[in-house]
Write a structure and sequence with these properties.
- This protein is α/β, with parallel strands linked by helices.
- The protein has a single domain, classed as P-loop containing nucleotide triphosphate hydrolases (Rossmann fold, 3-Layer(aba) Sandwich), CATH 3.40.50.300.
- A six-stranded mixed sheet has the order 1-6-5-2-4-3, sandwiched between helices.
- Helix 1 packs parallel to helix 10 and helix 2 crosses helix 10.
- The longest helix has 25 residues.
- GO terms for molecular function: polyphosphate kinase activity.
- InterPro entries: P-loop_NTPase (IPR027417), Polyphosphate_phosphotransfera (IPR016898), PPK2-rel_1 (IPR022300), PPK2-related (IPR022488).
- Pfam families: PPK2 (PF03976).
- Belongs to the polyphosphate kinase 2 (PPK2) family. Class I subfamily.
- Keywords: Kinase, Transferase.
């Protein structure tokens, strides 16, 4: 798959257009073939996670962004099911609380960053502040930012500064050992409609549906423009965006898993090696235990 998946990483200074990105790409895979490949990839990630935890030199921050019903939750469930919970943490960001609104927009996300040796998964993230907030600029007023007490004042310069803040934030994290993997699950509007209908018709999925989802769906074009701008403005060499075709959940899960696997492998992590004195102590301890 890795060769088939070329061209779906948005590099710095490379213009990305959502309308040119396929949502139904599956390459040469079918559902069964992808299912088997995902099992193998998860096994490999589990081993690599153990090395990551033991070496404690890097942390991994995995960001999922997408429209409603694109499959973020199921991707996290299936791809991460093989991880050791002790070395993994998942945060789902909702509407900011009153306390969070009393700080800058990155504060609550900084608090949720993974420690060295751990994998952090952010289901939605600091990017909501240039996505939903760009579609609904009135939300910015709740942040009480000096000089921005009217929606009309939230102009291009405001968004330019916000993109810069995000780039600086991620550059700082990268420089200090956090590897950032950003995934945009690119689902089509037609597929979203089918998934919404499925949630309405299946009683066991009713809880997943909200009438507010339909209101946001009506703003689809605005959201696509916001995503396109955010991806183009924040794709860097160190933390590019990965555009995942999401119409077929089984393919999206495999694509995400193999990207994570490849990134972990590229770190060339090793288990810590004990010094001669520590090794000698192990030998002494072994003899003491055997003589009991």
């Amino acid at each position: 798959m890795k060769n088939e998946f070329k061209g779906l990483i948005v590099q710095k200074n490379k213009k990305f257009s959502i309308k040119d990105a396929k949502t139904d790409f599956v390459g040469s895979y079918n559902k069964e073939k992808a299912k088997d490949a995902l099992v193998n990839s998860k096994i490999e990630i589990n081993h690599l996670q153990e090395t990551l935890y033991a070496s404690a030199t890097h942390s991994i921050l995995i960001i999922f962004q997408a429209m409603d019903a694109a499959g973020k939750d199921s991707a996290i469930e299936h791809v991460m099911s093989g991880l050791n919970p002790q070395g993994c943490q998942v945060f789902s960001f909702k509407v900011p609380t009153s306390e969070e609104y009393e700080h800058d927009f990155l504060w609550r996300h900084y608090k949720a960053l993974p420690e060295r040796g751990r994998i952090g998964i952010h289901n939605r993230s600091h990017y909501e502040n240039v996505l939903v907030c760009k579609v609904h600029p009135e939300y910015i007023l709740s942040e009480n930012i000096p000089g921005f007490d009217d929606v009309k004042k939230i102009n291009k310069n405001f968004w330019k500064q916000r993109y810069q803040s995000i780039r600086n934030f991620e550059e700082h994290l990268t420089a200090n050992g956090t590897v950032i993997l950003k995934f945009f699950l690119n689902v089509s509007k037609a597929e979203q409609k089918l998934r919404f209908l499925d949630r309405i018709e299946d009683p066991t999925k009713n809880w997943k549906f909200s009438s507010g989802d339909i209101k946001e769906r009506a703003l689809w074009d605005d959201y696509m423009k916001a995503y396109e701008d955010a991806i183009n403005q924040t794709s860097t060499k160190e933390s590019p965006w990965h555009i995942i075709p999401a119409d077929k959940k089984w393919f999206a899960r495999l694509a995400i898993s193999e990207i994570i696997e490849d990134k972990l492998k590229s770190l060339n992590l090793k288990f810590p090696v004990l010094g001669e004195e520590e090794v000698a102590k192990l030998g002494e301890t072994k003899l003491a235990l055997m003589s009991e």
